[in-house]
Amino acid sequence: MDIILPPKKNIVMDATLFSSLQGCARYVDLRYNHNFLPLKGKSNSLECGSLVHKILEVFYGYKIQGMSRQMAIGHAMTAGHLYITGCPHCSVPENLEPACRHQPLEYPGMRNTPEENESNKRIGWKWVLATMEQYFDFYKDDFWTPLFVETVRGDILYEDDEIRVIWKAKIDWCVDTNNGVFPIDHKTMKQRRDESNLNNQFIGQCLVMKTRSMIINRIGFQTTLEPKEKFTREMITYSADRLLEWQSEILPYYAYKYMQYTESGYWPPDWTHCESKYGFCMFKDVCIKDRGMREEELKLNFFVGPPWDVLNMKEDE
Q1: What is the largest distance, in Å, between two alpha-carbon atoms of the chain?
Q2: Distance CA 204, CA 310 (A)
Q3: Same domain for 54 and 198?
Q4: Which of 48, 66, 236, 281 has its CA 20 to 30 A from that of 175?
Q5: Residue ranges of E strands in the chain
Q6: What is the tally of structural domains in the chain?
Q7: How far is 271 from 243, CA to CA, in rounded Å?
Q8: Ranges of the chain with pLDDT below 70
Q9: What 3-state class would DSSP assign to 278?
Q10: Phi/psi class of residue 285: alpha, beta or left (left: φ > 0; alpha: ψ in -120 to 50)?
Q11: Which helix or strand (DSSP H or E) is residue 297 part of?
């Protein structure tokens, strides 16, 4: 008599979901299961980072299509202005089926970013645009060949008798440097700081792209630094053992934890992750409320956005 085994469970993960799972299960439930987004929009830091990503996506995308550098810059800066003002069809949360060709909330408008830099360290959108003009001038002789931009690559990174973990990585930019083909991640920053290679996003990109190295394209918003200090590109390299440990031990541990939360329906909070370098968790006031008041807090200050999609809903990792 043949023994029929139950089918394997497919678990799809990306770096943002995975890192959130390592931090707080309640956050994962509210953000990714229920798709809650704050009515007040992204923080100033995230808005400015998203603006830079949009400009670079359009610029390198047109370069790949063969457009001249100056025309590509023009299209990129135009897209940046649209990101600032917001698309009139989809910049409001209630309208998630826009009459335009881009993704919902792709051009939401910048709600928490002033026009000029402020003394309280909020970055102004004019300075972000000026920074990108500096970036294009600094790399005017760039010889790297762009291969693709803002592309999702996926692969099965772990499989056993019960589960199959499919990892999806959104690659900001992939280039041929003449020394190899590498994924690149754009990182914006207000202050100079070293980037840790203890990063799920970087490791996942390396594994999906079948490489042990990736590049961080740093873009600084400092007003007092020279371009050579603000714009740097750093190679991050992993040993084969580091990648194997993450793939064969760390990833499946959290995949099973995710399955446990899903099956039990209980997503416990972890109050050691309420504050990060970007400020407090957006659900802090929800957790502060008594159980009977949390639903009202969500109704007053959040809206239900589109389902999480690594392709069009990039957040800070």
Answers
A1: 76
A2: 13
A3: no
A4: 48
A5: 9-14, 36-38, 145-159, 163-176, 181-189, 213-220, 231-237, 275-276, 279-280, 302-304
A6: 2
A7: 29
A8: 1-6, 89-102, 104-105, 120, 193-195, 278, 310-317
A9: coil
A10: alpha
A11: helix 294-301
- From the number of C-beta atoms within 10 Å of its C-beta (0-12, 13-18, 19+), residue 128 rates as buried
Last residue of a domain, one of 115, 142, 169: 142
* Residue linked to tokens 């939360």: 261
Question: Are residues 194 and 131 part of one domain?
Answer: no
Distance CA(274)–CA(281), nearest Å, equals 5
Structure tokens at 104: 């919902």
Q: Give tens-digit pLDDT for 294-310.
A: 999 999 999 998 888 76
How many angstroms separate the Cα of 278 from the Cα of each of 42, 45, 141, 203, 227?
A: 11, 7, 34, 22, 24
CA–CA distance, 67 with 71 (Å, rounded to integer): 7
pLDDT digits 0-9 by tens, 128-154: 999 999 999 999 999 999 999 999 999
Same domain for 190 and 239, yes or no, is yes
H-run or E-run covering 293: none
What is the spatial distance between Cα 176 and Cα 109, in angstroms, rounded to a whole number? 33
CA pair distance 153, 168, nearest whole angstrom? 6
Domain assignment present for 303: no
Report residue 82 CA to chain centroid gap: 20
d(CA 280, CA 293): 20
